Amino acid sequence: MFDLSGRVAVVTGANTGIGQAIAIALAEAGADIAAVGRSAPDETEKRVKALGRRFLPVSADLSSTAPIAAAVEAVESDLGPIDILINNAGIIRRADALDFTEADWDAVMDVNLKSVFFLAQAVARRMVAGKRGGKIINIASMLSFQGGIRVASYTGSKSGVLGITRLLANEWAGKGINVNAIAPGYFATNNTEALRADEKRNADILARIPAGRWGDPADLGGAAVFLSSRASDYVHGTVLPVDGGWLAR
Hints:
single chain, Rossmann fold, seven-stranded parallel sheet, 8 helices
């Protein structure tokens, strides 16, 4: 039920961290991978190809919707119809709410929410036209459920990801498209480097995680494979926290 052999998966932001780990997990399950993003995913490409899977790097700056149509066309022309979309690319900006700028608000919203929606739309249109269905997985956050501090636009965007995941599931479940989300807890990635470097914040975060450690990106692989596979065919509009027990505390 978890076999992804012959499937084509698009993963955004797959050059490092969470996106890279998900791409590798999907490849281990049998999928071919298209990595869409600004940075060259050289290490990801090497590891995916070592598994015997096809790999396509697609250069696209998802701070705007402009490259989305061409990126989707490039994937389908090279690898074939898209079966799985992982909307992982995201950025973060930190400042007190009293000082937060419009530029930092717009930059985060454009990548984390606007491009997520319109990339899902572009892929779903192909899935519907081909009458084959598919899997769309958005990457949410603990801040889809909580407020956080000093990350106004990130919190707003990830709350929005939770909302559009449910909206798209409502509209597309009947078309054979499963739309779900994964909500990572506190993971050791580039986006959390500042938190881990802050001794007090790091200690406070670890004290609340029942598992007692920051997540490793590889911890997300099983959830991604599940939501990409036949095992999740009757799962629609859910958000799966992978958080070491953070939300249970």
